[in-house]
Amino acid sequence: MREFVQLFTRLDQTTKTTRKVELLVDYFGQANDQDRLWAIAILSGRRPKRSVKSSLLRQWAASLAGIPDWLMDDSYHVVGDLAETIALVLRPPVRTQNRSLTEWINTVKGLALLTDEEKQEVILSAWESMTTAERFVFNKLITGSFRVGVSQKLIIKAIARFEEQEENAIAHRLMGNWTPDTTDYENLIRSSNPADDDSRPYPFYLAYALEAEPATLGSPDLWQIERKWDGIRGQVIVREGEVYVWSRGEELVTAKFPEFHPLASLLPDGTVIDGEILPFKDEKPLSFNVLQTRIGRKNVTKKIRESAPVILMCYDLLEYNGEDIRARPLGERRALLEQLVAGVTEPGILYLSEVLEINDWSEAVDARAQSRENLSEGLMVKRMDSAYRSGRKKGDWWKWKIDPLTVDAVMIYAQQGHGRRANLFTDYTFAVWKGEELVPFTKAYSGLTDKEFKEITSWVKRNTRERFGPVRSVKPEQVFEIAFEGINASSRHKSGIALRFPRMLRWRKDKPAGEANTLADLQQMLIQYG
Amino acid sequence: MQDGFKKDDLLQFTERGIWCPPADIYIDPWRPVKRAMITHGHSDHSRYGHDSYLCTTQAAPAIKYRLGDINLQTVDFGKRTVINGVEFSFHPAGHILGSAQIRVAYKGEVWVASGDYKLENDGLAEPFESVPCHTFITESTFGLPIYDWKPQEEVFAAINDWWRANAAEGKVSLITAYSLGKAQRIIQSLDTSIGKIYTHGAVENMNEVMRAQGVPLAPTTRVTQEIAPKDYPGHLVIAPPSALNSSWIKKFKPLSRAVASGWMSLRGARRRRSVERGFVLSDHVDWKDLNAAVDATGAERVIVTHGYTNIYTKYLNEKGILAQAAQTEFSNEGDDVKEESAESGKTES
Ligand SMILES: [Zn+2]
Ligand SMILES: [Zn+2]
């Protein structure tokens, strides 16, 4: 594990991506196949499941460090990260250890089978043999919260360089639901037939936000313009008579969407469609909120299927007759997609995302202005001759979202953030007026600069009314403009509404609290856009 | 009178500073007073505007340099001064050169105001001396068990390794440290076979003050306009923390940046600074030494002035030592403690 800990420490010491790639390549060179595979798995988020309650870890660490539990908790609050807090409070090691990364991971996986007392014994003994840096990495493994400043893109780049392979090929191999328990390094990265895993999706191509005037893109003839639908971006794969549905978060969600299961016999083998999983009824999309009601559920009951039915709004075709066609121009892929969708006899499963007829950019401006009525988030503008690339790339695909909805609201509670912002008040609760009363309606914790958070933090400290644990109520004086993407009725909230993606757009120092919006304003928005 | 304090306490926490009523003298006062005793030259402890100052002989040059023409008397470590029946003496605090704890004895009762201090002997400051007392006034800047300093040899070895690696890659190494104390502590521990040491003006000014009082610091070169940017690669530059965000560092290219501070213990603090390296090096006590210092005084009452005051007093009270937090204006400006703690939002307690 020593080499992996060193890799982690060094990655942490640099912000330069070229240096990070070098460090990864170096590590791949010294690690054996097993450790290398585990390192890739951990860095790409495939970590062992958490098998110990964090409250127990806290207690054990406090007793080993000889400090009271409350002091452990206060320390945790200052550090903002449990794995790090534990690594720091423990006294220096009493022996050293020399086990490999794989051996340690097997220990961590084995914890799940042990009683609490046995777990404690294993973990304390591990802590006593480790340096601070080793403890930190080990704790991250037990708490299942390993995060390093290394993107999937960098890992892919490093493996590609180490293996002298194409980055796209590596990206494809790393997709899917493999773990080091279901495959080995040779098979995952080097085997000659990467398609041996039929479920494997392609990396999604993600668009950048269009910030310039659309006219800077040249003639609209060069672009395919569609609506940007508000659902879950997904890939539907049919191979060897089986259907697989992937969400953009690289999650296999086939079981959650039985609507797509008939496609196994309706689409030819070797088909991969990129589209939007969209709640849809009576030939019209429904609000994203409807989809949310079924995302979290374990079982998709008949009732849910009836109240929140989904379809696939098809955007693109990535694999046709078993052939990867991502390099072909968009226009050509679209023609094949239309042909395929037309061939599906069963109605109500696949829809084609309509290509808008735009002869002039001003028509696109009008179409974008109608987005909310269409329950879409704006437009997608894709170059007709573009290949389907992987990851977020500039130039060929743009998302041209509508401006968010906004309200001015009064901050009434503030809470400290976590991790990097553990010492700043960054999480706020906002309210709007209902007569003389302020009704809380949303929380938000992003959208301001560090400098602003610092300024507000010092204001919060000076203007605290009451403390409830980590939360403070503050004088209702500060007004913020809150932006959000959607608004829905909600019985779970006191205000009766729920916002989608709320964040702070700006701090309205110029505005007195009395001039913030009212609950009636929000109800009006709900009628208009909900 | 602050909560929990008594009218007849030998040292009282007033709005001007720590006051000794029978002698009518203040220790490290933050508002102008007639007579001030100063523990050390960091600006939150030695401020403008007092009619007279008393500090140790070794602390005087830096204080004079900073405050200019003041009415300053000096006293040697250990020597007793009696004012109105109150006996005062200065004892090494190990924080920076000349820094003192002030012992105050009156009618058989002994108080010690320790200012800022550390137990590790850094070779520059006079080594900390434990002074038995009934009431001990202590800081708690790093008063949490998450702060645990490594022996300084390890830290300096890491700093030299970092410099050596940068030099091999043709980079300039820039390290920030508070200009009075920490900077000189680093200078005397650098391996000058690697390259030259350049200094920011604020650091070099303090170097000159210390050399003039006979401290044998390694040779350093002040960064000036006349030096060509191409001369810096391979060498090391020491600057105060504020330089990191200024255009002053633009001339150093290619650059690797590091911060030397106790706050660098935390990953979050390192990342917030967005520097390549954070070396954990402090002139304050860590958790174990704070507790060792408190224990060694044998004090039955402890007053905690700055840092994690609420947490640390609670800890001591549970251990059976009567402890109280006092409001002071220490670490509001000057010392690197302030700058970094303000940044991490810890100015509160
Ligand atoms: Zn100081
Ligand atoms: Zn101080």
From TrEMBL, chain A:
Domain ATP-dependent DNA ligase family profile: from-to ranges: 303-434
InterPro entries for this protein: ATP-dep_DNA_ligase, ATP_dep_DNA_lig_pp_1105_fam, DNA_ligase_ATP-dep_C, DNA_ligase_ATP-dep_cent, DNA_ligase_ATP-dep_CS, DNA_ligase_ATP-dep_N, DNA_ligase_N_sf, NA-bd_OB-fold
Keywords: ATP-binding, Cell cycle, Cell division, DNA damage, DNA recombination, DNA repair, DNA replication, Ligase, Magnesium, Metal-binding, Nucleotide-binding
Alphabetized Gene3D superfamilies for the sequence: DNA ligase, ATP-dependent, N-terminal domain, DNA ligase/mRNA capping enzyme, Nucleic acid-binding proteins
A molecular function GO annotation: metal ion binding
Assigned EC number: 6.5.1.1
GO biological process: cell division; DNA recombination; DNA repair; DNA replication
UniProt protein name: DNA ligase (ATP)
Natural source organism: Neolewinella aurantiaca
TrEMBL record, chain B:
InterPro entries: MBL, RibonucZ/Hydroxyglut_hydro, Xnuc_lig_assoc
Domain of life: Bacteria
Key words of the record: Exonuclease, Hydrolase, Ligase, Nuclease
Region (Disordered): 327-349
Biased composition (Basic and acidic residues): 339-349
Keyword Transcription found: no
EC top class, as a word: hydrolase
One GO molecular-function entry: exonuclease activity
EC number(s) given by UniProt: 3.1.-.-
Keyword Nuclease: yes
PANTHER family found in the cross-reference section: BLL1145 PROTEIN, CLEAVAGE AND POLYADENYLATION SPECIFICITY FACTOR FAMILY MEMBER
UniProt protein name: Ligase-associated DNA damage response exonuclease
